[in-house]
């Protein structure tokens, strides 16, 4: 089993739709979790951290489920500009163990 | 605010040639620094990380090396490039156990 797994997609959704991605991790001792966004041929950019209590930033909501060892990202009212690859990141015990998922590709269609 | 720079942005090198990619960070002290490689259509692979000057940890054995001659400078090198070294090289920094911030990357093509 991979340490961090994501459905590669692509997820093709119409504008205005709600879409959700999950990311599973294998190490129950993982401490910190993040979602990044990566546009084609660009560097990943931090989208949001994932807190135990869940957190929301505008149209984006991140959740952590420690019991089932997954994090999720919900995007409401999808915009064309949301089209990108979304990477989940898991930190275990500090900086020396950082694992990126391979990403989920989202394509928002007019 | 903090900024991270990488250069060059693109590079085309012949097999067997040397490589030197540079990354510098501004606006922070004693950052953790990272080198990643992303092959076409693939995920990010952590190559090296550094928690301080002269302190380098390697994640994957290969023909690449890294150095940190100054607090905010991180260099990725190779004596002889292989075709398999082609990819998108990303430098990142973080403050302790926090999220990482990436530079714009260097797209390397080895021919």
DSSP strand count of chain A: 11
Biggest sheet of chain B, open or closed, and with what strands and sense? Answer: 7 strands, mixed
| Uncertain regions spanning at least 5 consecutive residues of chain A | none
Kindly report the oligomeric state of this protein.
Answer: heterodimer
Radius of gyration of chain B: 13 Å
Give me the strand/helix succession of chain B.
EEEEEEEEEEE
Largest interface: A-B, 21 and 24 residues
Task: Kindly report the average pLDDT value of chain A.
Answer: 92
Give the structural class of chain B. Answer: mainly beta
- SSE string of chain A: EEEEEEEEEEE
Distance between the termini of chain B: 38 Å
Radius of gyration of CA atoms of chain A, rounded to a whole number: 13 Å
Distance between the termini of chain A: 37 Å
| Strand percent estimate of chain B | over 45%
- Low-confidence parts of chain B, pLDDT < 50 over ≥5 residues? none
Assign an overall shape of chain A: globular
Please report which band the strand proportion of chain A falls in: under 5%, 5-15%, 15-25%, 25-35%, 35-45% or over 45%: over 45%
The number of E-state strands of chain B comes to 11
The tally of helices of chain A reads: 0
Number of helices of chain B: 0
Explain the layout of strands and helices.
The complex is a heterodimer of chains A (110) and B (111).
Chain A: E1 4-6, E2 11-14, E3 19-25, E4 32-38, E5 45-50, E6 55-57, E7 60-65, E8 70-75, E9 84-91, E10 98-100, E11 104-109
Parallel strand pairs in A: 2-11
Antiparallel strand pairs in A: 1-3, 3-8, 4-5, 4-9, 6-7, 7-8, 9-10, 9-11
Chain B: E1 3-7, E2 10-13, E3 19-26, E4 32-38, E5 44-52, E6 55-58, E7 64-70, E8 73-78, E9 87-94, E10 100-102, E11 106-110
Parallel strand pairs in B: 2-11
Antiparallel strand pairs in B: 1-3, 3-8, 4-5, 4-9, 5-6, 7-8, 9-10, 9-11
Q: What does this entry look like structurally?
A:
- The complex is a heterodimer of chains A (110) and B (111).
- Helix content of chain A is 0%, strand content 54%.
- Chain A has no helices and 11 strands.
- Chain A is globular.
- Chain B has strands at 3-7, 10-13, 19-26, 32-38, 44-52, 55-58, 64-70, 73-78, 87-94, 100-102, 106-110.
- In chain B, the strands form 2 sheets. In chain B, strands 2, 4, 5, 6, 9, 10 and 11 form a 7-stranded mixed beta sheet that branches. Chain B has a 4-stranded antiparallel beta sheet with strand order 1-3-8-7, with no helix packed on it.
- In chain B, a hairpin with a 5-residue loop joins strand 4 and strand 5 (44-52).
- The interface between A and B is medium-sized, with 21 and 24 residues.
């Amino acid at each position: 089993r991979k340490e961090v797994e994501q459905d590669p997609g692509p997820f093709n959704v119409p504008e205005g739709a709600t879409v959700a991605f999950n990311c599973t991790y294998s190490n129950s001792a993982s401490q910190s979790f993040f979602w990044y966004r990566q546009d084609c041929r660009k560097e990943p950019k931090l989208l949001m951290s994932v807190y135990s209590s869940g957190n929301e930033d505008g149209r984006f909501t991140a959740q952590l489920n420690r019991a089932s060892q997954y994090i999720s990202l919900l995007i409401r009212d999808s915009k064309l500009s949301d089209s990108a690859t979304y990477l989940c990141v898991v930190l275990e015990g500090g900086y020396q163990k950082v694992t990126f998922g391979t990403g989920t590709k989202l394509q928002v269609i007019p | 605010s903090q900024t991270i720079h990488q250069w060059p942005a693109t590079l085309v090198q012949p097999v067997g040639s040397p490589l030197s990619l540079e990354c510098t960070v501004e606006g922070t002290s004693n950052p953790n620094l990272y080198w990643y490689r992303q092959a076409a259509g693939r995920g990010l692979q952590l190559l090296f990380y550094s928690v301080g000057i002269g302190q380098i940890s390697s994640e994957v054995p290969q023909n690449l090396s890294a150095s940190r001659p100054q607090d905010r400078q991180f260099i990725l090198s190779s004596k002889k490039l292989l075709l398999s070294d082609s990819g998108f090289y990303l430098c990142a920094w973080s403050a302790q156990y926090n999220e990482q911030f990436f530079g714009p990357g260097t797209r390397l093509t080895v021919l």
